[in-house]
Design a protein that fits this description.
6 helices; alpha/beta; binds flavin-adenine dinucleotide; globular; FAD/NAD(P)-binding domain; about 290 residues
Length: about 290
Amino acid sequence: MIYDTIIIGKGPAGISAAVYLVRSGRSVLVLGKDAGALERAESIENYYGFPENVSGAELALRGIAQAERLGVTVLSEEILHLGMDDVWSVKTTEGLYSTKTILIATGKSRTSINVPGFEQYRGKGISFCVTCDGFFYRGKKLALLGAGSYAANEYSELLAFSEDITVFTNGAEITGSFPKNASIVTEKITAFTGEDSVSAITTAEGTVHAIQGVFVALGTAGAASFAATVGVELSGTDIVIDAQHMTNIPGVFAAGDCTGGFLQIAKAVSDGAHAAKGINSYLKNIS
Ligand SMILES: Cc1cc2nc3c(=O)[nH]c(=O)nc-3n(C[C@H](O)[C@H](O)[C@H](O)COP(=O)(O)OP(=O)(O)OC[C@H]3O[C@@H](n4cnc5c(N)ncnc54)[C@H](O)[C@@H]3O)c2cc1C
């Protein structure tokens, strides 16, 4: 089946868009790994319609229940990769889905680590996108930062460019399925060093690992990594959108915290509604 829209994220932005789209007769699939920022919001007092405060977890459950009642399918799956052939493909930990449009509603990206040298070499040997930059690192000695399913997926993509890859988990436990022979360093990273570009990673016990490039796949793929993979324009880590909430890539829309601005539920819900309107117009034009 080819969906009209696949929404990445089941937070306020994604669910709000889903509600509008399904009520316009569109086939919608929402994929999200958890309740996003709401999961950590203990008490919300500034959102419309709750005279008693409400917990973020409760608000998230209510939003999802509302969307499901209207006929939206909401699945708890982690998205690993986006691709484009005749239609968009969305690869998750559980399967592969096809869609005419994508709405990125993944919340605020947190794919950085607070280690000396990391920010300095971002874009100078430190990359966030195997699909975009892997080619430049053919046959080189590479580091891959991460430990989960997203990192394992990036590892398999990176193998097309180099077989000399060391996985650095930065102290995290491996949860992704890496090949048995993968070289893995679990110590905490203490520094990225180099000259014009990064050339070494130092770990907690003082070991200096010479490398020629670093790919970052920490945690789960966020807005910035999806954007980079499909060529969506970013401003810092925020996705750039037009008045219809469409990115520079036709058919790819974004809403909520991942587009920056006022990082609040009210804005995310409004974004979702506007994005649904934009997606509807786009679908009308291509049909
Ligand atoms: C501690 C805390 C307290 C807050 N308190 C308030 C408050 O009182 N009032 C207020 O208005 N706002 C508050 N906020 C902000 C508010 O929660 C956010 O602005 C809002 O949730 C943004 O909605 P969103 O849909 O854009 O993103 P999120 O709610 O963050 O949802 C993002 C979704 O994307 C999914 N996702 C991301 N990456 C992937 C992937 N690779 N695969 C699958 N799914 C993925 C997540 O699982 C999640 O479902 C608070 C935030 C925090 C952290």
